[in-house]
Structure formats: structure tokens, C-alpha cells
């Protein structure tokens, strides 16, 4: 037994020893693997490869964002020259990688300073390129660095951080690519650097044979398998030598890669050809704005953009002349002395400062683009109907990010087409289809448009009453500018973001007008027409973003009548602090406003006041999170953004139903005019864009517009209109319904005639013949009913259309780095293939070739009109010579 026990003991020890050796060997191999993988991250080659990929990814974004402005032949012929600046940048970095790695060349302190500087340069380049690429991934558009100041407040920072996940993804992809390609990119750049350094070596030594090439000093080094710790410090291609250094001995590279001479010749020949091609293309490339702009390396784009001076807008028509009689009106300005308003009180009224300061002011009578329809009869459906309509209160409901084709959702629409396409042959699931059928019942009630294609109209469906406009465009695709157009009846300022609050709003806004009416003597009127107006603005989103609150005060809303997120969560909130979580980076859902809506109408009735209330919805803003614990329904396969957007549109529809219920319960539904208007749409259906930033697509322009009142007959208008027309329409409607006292009616008439827009309760005129300002005997000229949309953020593009040709759209750039665009919505409703060029004359030539002479002449006229309008816009806002 003793012998057996010893035998078993020895065997066990031996077995444990074997197991230990196996474990140790595996642990060593695992350690070697970790060190090997890790060493490929902790070296200069990885850093250089990361920067290379970041620069080239950013450059591809830059080119891709403007690709439509290039013809295929131009891209094939000159495309390689676009990367010249990027190659120079990367070669300079490659030289720096070698230069500061030379042992003993500098003192330690100097090397340390240089290393810090080098690291800062690398970090700056990487950060700029990563942000540039990430922004494109998130929004589908190129970032414009002059706009980064918008992230200065809390809401702006939250907006910026919404792309954090995409940023991490971009960095991860770049890291993986750099890990895989580091050797190839480092050596390739070294080869090019060798070739470029030949003249320097020849000049200093006079002997080309002394050149040590990148391939020669990148010799193969065998790493001992049992010494990974040391091996990790010896790279596959040794790269610690200086560029163009003499070989130490003829046998220094005895273990070169097989057939190195042949491969070396191939690599150096290809690199030489690439360099010569770049030099030749850059030398002979024609001077063209598009080609020059495409060539900027992304690192320089912030400086290129910031070099443009602030101030007024400029439209460059190239060599096109406008000195003939047909365009002589372009020297006219609509700014003159103020029109007579004898009813203004002696004490200054806010919004009417020009009348008290003897300043120049907009005068519709001399506006060469003004078309008035106030001398026309009312719409046929309104004749004899308006005297039965009482308008004691007016309520604006501005629908955040709401496209026309989701108000209501219809089966035959671009939205439904995209959703159906996403499901493929399997078809849309019943759950999604049922959700879409019931998504917007309130919108159907408001618009009176029950024929959605999902189900037949039944006799029990009755519209609320009002005028629904099917072809309304916003004045701007940026919310704050759009609000200015709606509430003030003006064209927004052609400048980035909200500068309106710091400049001269060139017409009185609706709150200003109502305050002025409050000062009038209403005579013997003993009904609501003699009551004073109270203006208020309410939303559940913040007013701190981009000076939103300051703009509302400039528009005329009293400070104590502004209700926003900060007020609602504050301790002084009238109905207690709100503790709801945010649904987006601006605020929470709208339901806490119910108490405030009820309060303002009930208190106004008790105080014999009239209410003008403006409300902006917010739940339908990106990133489209459903309030509470409600789960969104998947409406499109692989289309998460569009599905979430439509789900929030459905939530907003239910909110609008609550608003109508509140008006009913407060007893004011039959005496309140409701204006439903989208601030802007979204182009996600057309091109996948989740924002309107630098995206002029028609999906961001086309919005809902409804004048709703239970006593108005249901009317649908298909003519082209603009949200600029809402304010004069309200004045006209108040007069025609007898909702103002005689003195207030006269004041409203005077003002309505002096606004740019036509009244929407009368037939909209598509054109008018006006007397020419040319020499005597010159025939009258015909002016079109032009609509202008200032594209988000405001300074770069103006969307233009003309009611005479409602399907033609022109996008006019007001900066050199933005393209001209023309599209025909009849042929291309999604604007998938617009004509786009950086030069105006080039666009005219392409339009003439593809759409004919008439379209080309219209483009020329539209461009001339827009150039005058843009310059006039700066004058009216007193912005042309002021700092932005």
C-alpha cells in the first residue's frame, strides 16, 4: 500500500506539474496576445493612421455634402486634386513624426515642449475631423463652424450632446481602421516623403545613391516568440530612422523582404506618379468656385468660413447684367417716410417707434413686389357668412416640426410611400397600419379633410369649420424666424439664428397692434369690441435657447405673460412646480399648460378682456421621445427616426384635442379664432434629414396652415400662400366679422394695407401688372406673387417660388460656399435630383438644357428678384452695416 500510495502521489504531482505548464503556457500566450494587440494601439503608427483616416473621412463628408454641385465629368477629371491639401497636411505630420523621434538632436526640455505642441496639433486635427464627420452622420448635412456659438446655452449643449452616441461610433470605426491599416498608411506616407525629400538630399550631398529609402530602413525583424515583452518594442518595420539617412553598411538590410527591389520600384513609381498627377491637376485646374471650395482640407474650413465678414446678404449673379428697363425697378427701395396713422396716441406705443422718431419705414405703396388683394371680394364660400362669426379671442397654435402631409396623415402621401417601401414584400403589419389610420383624427377635424384614403367618409364626420390651405410655405425653416414671420407679418432677417431680437423689426407685430388698439376711444360700443386685449405666450419648452425669451418680448409679449419650462418648474409657478421629465433637450410635454389655458380665458372673461394667446408645441421636436411610459409603435422597418416622429405627431394630435376641449369647457370655442400653423417641416421623408439645418428641401418648407372657427364654413384653398400672410389676414377677418369697434376697424384697415402679404380670406392674386419705373411710354411690367423662405440657420440660403409657377423652386445662395439649386416639384416631388451648381450662369445653362427656355428665363427673373429682396431685407432690418 505504501508503494502504491507513493506511486499515485508521484503521478498526481507529475500531472499537476503538466497542468501547471499548460496553464502557464496558455497564460503566457494570452499575455503575448494582449501585449501584441495593445502594442498596436500604443505606437506612433496607430496615431498617424488614426489622423489619416479622420482627415480623409472628413474630406469625403465635405465632398459628399456638395457632390450635386459637380458634374460627373468634373469629378472624374479633377477629383484627385481635391485631396492635395489633405496630402500636404498628412505629409507634414509624417515629417514631424520622424523629426521629433531622432535621439539626441535636442535638449530634453525642447523635446518636451515640441512633444506637447505636436500632441496638441494631432488632437486638434482629430477633434475637428471627428466633429465634422459626426455631425454629418447625425444630421445628413455638413457642419458650419461659424454657427458653433449656438451651443453656448444649456439647451444648445443638450442639442450638441444628442450626437454623443454617433460620435463614439465614429471614433470606434476610426480606431479599428487605424489598428488594421497603421503599417500600410505609415509606410505609404514615408515613401511619398522620401520622394519629396530627394531634391533636398541631392542639394546637400550631391549623391543620390546615399539616400536611405523608407523601404530600406523598414527591414524585417524577427521577434523571438518567447520574448514578447521585448518584441513589442520592435515593430515589424523598424521606423526609428530619420528620413533620407545614409545606410550604415551595405549589409545593414540583409533580411529584406523577398523581392524587395521589385516591390520597392513599384511603390516608388506609383507614389511618384501620384505626386506628379496632383501637381499637374492643381496647376491646370480651371478657376472655379466649386472646385476651389471642394479642395479645402477640413482643418481649414473653420478659418475659411469665419473669414467672411458679418453684415448684409449678397447674391452673386456672375456677369449677368440687370441694367435694362425690365429690371430698373431693382434700384427702388420700399423704405420711405411713415404712412399717416392719425389714430396713434401721443404717447409712444411699442412697435410704432418709427412714427414717433420720424424714421423711415416700410411702405407697401412703393414696394415693387407688393400685390394687394384687399380690393377683391371675399372668397365665394365666405360671402354673407362672416357677420355670424364672433371673434372675441385669437389663439395661435404653432405646430413644431410639422409637415403638411402629416396634418392629417393620408394613405396617398410621400410619408406613406416611404413607410410602405420599408416593409418590402411582407407588407405593413396590421398594428402599424391601424396606428396610422387613427394617428391624426383631430387634424382631420380641424382641416375638414376626412378623405385620408384609409376609410370612406361617413355622414357623421363634421369639420370644425375654417379655411384649410394645402400649399402653404413657411417664412423660415428655423423656428424663431418662422415665429417672427407669423406674428409680425414680415420676412425674417437673412442672418444666422435669432438676431431679430437685436435689430429693427420693421413692422408692428400683432401684440403691438393690439396694444395700440387698446389706446383707442371705442365710443359707445358696449360689447366685447370695447374690451382691451391681453397678450400671452405659453409653451412647455425653454425660452432660454438662442434668446427665445428676448425675441418674444421684442414681439410684444409682456414679461409676466411668458410661460415656459423654467417658469413651470419654478417655485413661483401659479399651479405648482412641474416635476415631469424632459422629452427632448428643450422641455417636457405640453399637458401642464392645461391649467394656464383655462386660467387665462376664465380670468379674461371676468375682467372683460380679450385674449391673444400664442402656444408652440414641443413634443414633436427631435429626438421624438414619447411622454410618460407610452411605447412608440414601429411604423417603418429600419426607419426609427420617421417612426418616432410620427408617433409624436400622434401625441400632439391628442394634445390638440385637449386644447379644443378646454375651449369648449371654458365657453369660448365659438368666439375664438384658432390659427394652426407649422413653424417648419422636416425633410426626413425626402432625404432622411432629421433637421432643416442647411437643408433647403421642400419637405422643410411645406407646412399646415388653417384658420379655424366653428362658425366659418369649411373651405379648402389649393393656391400657393405663405405664412407671411397670416397677420394681415387676421386684421382683415376682425374687420369683416365686426369684431372690432369702428375706431379699431379703421386702424386695422390702415395697417392691413401696409403689410407685404395678401389677405387669405380673399382670392389670392398670382400676379399683377404695375406701372414700370422706366422711361415714359415703357409698358407696364408683370410681377409675380413671390414667396421667400429663409433656410435654417438663415444666412446662407433663400428658398424662392412664384405662384405663377408653383412647382418651380429656386434656392439662392447668399454665401460663396453654398450652391444654387433648381427643382421642378411636378417631375421630382422629393427633390431627389435637383440641378445644383456653385455658379449662377452655370445653373441657368443647365436649366435651359434640361427644362427649356421658359424655365431658364424664370430662374433669371427669380434670381434678380431675390437679389433685390435680400439687399432690401438688410435695409429694412437695419442690419447691413451692423455687427452680427
UniProtKB/TrEMBL annotation:
Transmembrane segments: 46-65, 77-97, 117-138, 158-179, 185-203, 265-281
Keywords from the named record: Membrane, Transmembrane, Transmembrane helix
Residue ranges of every copy of the Sulfatase N-terminal domain listed in the record: 462-734
InterPro entries on file: Alkaline_phosphatase_core_sf, GAG_Ulvan_Degrading_Sulfatases, Sulfatase_N
Presence of keyword Membrane: yes
Pfam family, one: Sulfatase
Domain of life, source organism: Eukaryota
SUPFAM superfamilies: Alkaline phosphatase-like (SSF53649)
Protein name as annotated: Sulfatase N-terminal domain-containing protein
Organism encoding this protein: Hirsutella minnesotensis 3608
